[in-house]
Specification:
By secondary structure, the chain is an alpha/beta fold. The protein has a domain of 136 residues: P-loop containing nucleotide triphosphate hydrolases (Rossmann fold), CATH 3.40.50.300. The protein is 38% helix and 26% strand. It is built from 10 helices and 10 strands. The chain is globular, with a radius of gyration of 17 Å.
């Protein structure tokens, strides 16, 4: 589904990503793991078209999407939940969700309502607070809202950047259970996550990124036991 070939990205003279090659297959959950400032967020921003590549190519469903405008990448079927959530705090919960559906055709109203019902079933608190201003939600509720907003665009691939960051354990458990439910429904997930063992527990495969380079990749079960993961977890 997603193929990245020898991707190089610069921040000025600094090489942020150095010849990154990886693949996310349809129906998979893939975890991207690494220390702070390894380049994980940079990779997601580059896939989304927010940052430009220096060299290399990005393919989505065999279409070259390298350096396309972000709105065109969304139209191809890639959703992105950024670190920090970036909800619209003065809009209601419902209005935030409907913003996610803005590219859907007017004739898709029934399908939009079905998706809204699905999101409310996964995150009942959003239905309870649907008329409440989004800025008044707790951090965990805002993360659920950011995820729901991305889902309203009906992505084929959903990328998530540190979805558990700053959240209480009960919200983390609920959100990761939702990820498993999304995947069972057929959604492909590419997750950047600080909760290493938790992300590998739901992932099929994973990659380890360090200093802008991929240092290891493979089945999640094997990565959990690798020395590289133990170094990340325990130093």
């Amino acid at each position: 589904m997603l193929r990245i070939k020898k991707l190089i990205v610069h921040y000025g003279p600094f090489i942020a990503l150095n010849e990154i090659s990886l693949e996310v297959k349809a129906g998979e959950v893939v975890a991207l793991i690494g220390p702070n400032k390894a380049g994980k967020t940079t990779l997601l921003l580059t896939i989304s078209g927010i940052l430009e590549t220096t060299e290399g190519r990005i393919f989505f469903q065999e279409t070259d999407i390298t350096n396309l405008d972000p709105h065109k990448i969304v139209a191809h079927g890639i959703g992105h939940v950024p670190q920090g959530r970036h909800i619209f705090p003065t809009l209601s919960v419902l209005d935030n969700l409907m913003v996610g559906a803005y590219k859907r055709r007017q004739g898709a109203r029934e399908a939009v309502q079905e998706d809204l019902a699905w999101i409310y079933a996964m995150f009942p608190i959003l239905k309870k607070r649907n008329k409440q201003r989004a800025g008044t939600l707790s951090g965990g509720e805002q993360q659920m809202l950011a995820i729901g907003r991305a889902l309203m665009g009906r992505p084929r691939l959903l990328m998530l950047d540190e979805p558990s960051s700053g959240l209480a354990p009960r919200y983390i458990d609920e959100i990761f259970a939702a990820f498993e439910a999304m995947n069972r429904r057929g959604l492909t997930l590419f997750i950047v996550e600080q909760e290493i063992q938790l992300s590998l527990a739901i992932a099929h495969r994973g990659y380890i990124l360090r200093n802008g380079r991929l240092v290891k990749g493979g089945a999640a079960s094997a990565l959990r036991e690798s020395k590289e993961i133990k170094e990340l977890c325990f130093g």
